[in-house]
Structure formats: C-alpha cells, structure tokens
Amino acid sequence: MKKISMILMSCILISVSGCKKYIDVNTNPNQPLDVAEAQILAPVEVAISSKLYAGNVAVIVQEYMQVAALNQVAPNAGTYLMYNTDMNDDWRTLYVNCLNNLVTLNAKAVADGKTNYAGIAKILTAYCLGTGTDLWGDIPYSQAFKGTANFTPVYDTQKDIYTTIQSLLDAGIADIAKNGIISPGGDDFFYAGDMSKWTKLAYTLKARYYMHLTKAPGYTAATQAQLALTALQNGMQSNDDDFKMAYGGAAGAENPWQQNFISASTIVMASTAVNGFKTRNDPRLTIMVAPALATSLYTGLDQGLSTIGQLEEYSRPGSFYGAAGASNYIVNYSEALFIKAEATLILSGFSSAQAIYQSAISSHMTKLGVSTANANTYIASRPLTNANAEQLIIEEKGIANFLSLENFTDFRRTGFPILPAVKNALSAIPRRVLYPQTEIISNPQPQQSAKLTDRVWWDAQ
C-alpha cells in the first residue's frame, strides 16, 4: 500500500500527463496497436519463404510434378486425393500471414514516407498474388482487406489479378527509384536492404508473369515474349541476385524443406525425378539428391503404390537444397535466363536461343559447384533442335527451379516435362488446387465449385 501511495504522489508531482504515460492501464505493451515497418517486414518474409514457398501446398505440388512421393498406401495426395479442408492453412498463410501484413506494411510505409519499404511491400504483394492465383485461379483482392466493411469480398478474375500484378511491380519499381533515405537492414532477410536487387527482382517477376500468358485467351506468345525480354534487360544479372532466404539450421531455424522430408512426414523423392538425373547422366545428381541411408543408392519411390516400403531405402533432397541450413531459392538468376531463352525461342527460333539456354544451365551448375568440365560435357549432350527446344528449355528450367511452385505453372502451360501416369490415380494430373473449406463457409463464391482438373484462365487448351 505504501508503494502504491508513493507512485501516486510521484505522478501528481510530475503532472497528470506524466502519470498517464507511465501507469495507463488501458495500454497493453505486449499487444501494440502500431509497429514500425521493420517489425512487419521480417516476419512476413519468413512466412513467404517458409509457409508459402515451402508449405503444405508446395509439398503437394511436388507430388503432382513427381518430384516428391508419399510413402503411404494409395489413395493419397500423390494420386490426386484432396479435400477442401486440405487447403485451409495455405489460404490462411496467403491472406493472413502474407497479404494482409503486406497491405498494412505498404499503407504504413506510404504514410511515413518510407518509399523503399513501400516498394518492397508492393513487389512482395505481387509475388504473393501470383502464387495464389496460379494455384486457385480467381481470388479476392480489390475488395479484400477492408475489415468489417466487407467480410465477403467478391473474387477478382485471374485476368484482372494479372493486370494488378504488373501494376504493383511497376509501382514498386517507381517507389524504389525515389531513392528514399531509409532502407531496411537486418529486417530484410532476402537482400539486407540492397534496393538495386529488389528492383532486379521486380523486373524478373514482370518477365515471369508475362510468360505465363503466352497461351492465355486474348494474348499472343510473341507479344508476351517481347515484353519479357524488355523487362529482363533490367532483371537479374548473376547468381548474386538470387531471391533467396538462408536458414541457420539450428533447432527452430531449419530450412522448411528439410522439415518437409524428415522421416515423420513419410515424404521422399519420387522415382521420376531421381531416374531423370540418371537417364540424363546429370552431374547434379549427387548434389541435388542424397543417397538412401539404408543402401547408399540413389533411389526414388514410385507413386500410387498399394504397399509401403522402408523410408530409409529412398532418397531425399541433397544438402544443397535439403539440409537444415540450406537456402530457399525462391526466384533465381537461372530462371531469368531460361525465361530469356524461351522468349527468344518464340521470337527468333532455337538457334538464337541456344547460347542463352546453355548459359542458364551453366549458371545453375556453377551455383551447385559442378566442375566446368562436367558442366560442359552435360550441356553438349543436350543441344536444342527445332523439335526439342521448348521441351529441353522447360525441363532444364525445372531442374534449376528445384522444389519451386513455378514448375507446376510451366507444366500446365507447356506440357513439359512429360510425366508418366501415376498408378491408382483418381484423375488426370491436377491443374489447380481446391478452394479451402473455411472460405467456402465464410465467403461463398461461384468459383469455389472448381475441381482439381479444371483449368485456370491462362491455362488454355
């Protein structure tokens, strides 16, 4: 009681405002109503890398692409079994953990005049929207994030989302070009505040999303290819520009792909992917794939089996991508070169694309530490021809984009890589994922009846 009296007397002596400042019982210091941009950026970047790029839906897509296989009796995700509830957490990651925080970050940065933070927020929003729309098709955006003003936002069409993506990237580039004084530092886990790299990422993403529309209704491949080539003039220029997140590897700081492939998950590498390395005599096999612990052999698991095997008889990703301290390569320079090669193929033919394609493979092998001699031998064994150019460009791009959701998009729009039929499959290979049950209940929309085999807008016949 004496202590309380002394506090009250002190407040009276230093004025009423001082007392309110120090003992305001209506303010919870553990639940601040406002935080600085740095406190928003860091966790949203982690969510993008660990939960959006490498979360549940990303694992399922690796099963669709026959890179990963589930050591469980069919039916399972690898044989295209999915329930709407399976996507609840992924939708929450996209909208709650990522987009909602990015909208807040952008609004706060604009209000505070922190143009670099605003630019980053817009670029990351574009990436998240691209990821979401390529998985689900039509999604809410223009009417979303209004709080109590609108709990049931109508979905934007995928065509409109793609227009928004390009507008956001342009606006992000313009924000960074204002050369704001304040830049991120340690709160930027991707580029540590190097705004020139953020700009290169934005232009590379512009090229990526232009190429997604090469077969979209009302678009032409030549126009999209030229737009992509123009954007890439300002895009990534070397492996140093990779948009990646490094993980420390200690408990609680492991790379999420290492966690995805731990024994408890029963996920291992699929035979299609592992055998592909062997068939190509690919020197990246021993770097990208780990030998099975029980046999020391490089062995993948067939999908859709009616029996299960011993987990330690199958391979998992090698340490470069799959170690606890590995990095997530979310967008990389090799992809930029493969985009350039494909766009050049469309506009000028395979002979013009050849050198770019070879540089793309070389850039990936250099990053992995493959010797120059082995890289050159491999590249010489896979020359482009008029008949195989698109297939080889997309196949090699998929290797350089190992574990990326982008490979699912490329498969749908090009038909490559050619994937064998899965045993006990419940349908053809999916071309999207289902809308989440939580969204169907809380915000019913006509698009939510879509099936796994229904095509999204840009996935034209």
Summarize the structure.
The protein is mainly α.
Note the main attributes of this structure:
461 residues, 3% strand, single chain, mainly alpha, two-stranded antiparallel sheet, disordered N terminus, two-stranded antiparallel ribbon, 19 helices
What is the average per-residue confidence, as pLDDT, rounded to a whole number? 93
Q: What kind of assembly state do the chains in view correspond to?
A: single chain
Order of helices and strands: HHHHEHHHHHEHEHHHEHHHHHH
Question: Roughly what fraction of the amino acids lie in strands?
Answer: under 5%
Label the overall shape. globular
How many helices? The count is 19
Structural class: mainly alpha
Major beta-sheet overview: 2 strands, antiparallel
Numbering strands along the chain, what is their spatial order in the largest sheet? Answer: 1-3
Strand segment tally: 4
Gap between N and C termini, in Å? 79 Å
The poorly predicted ranges are 1-24
Rg is 24 Å
Q: Specify the helix fraction band.
A: 40-55%
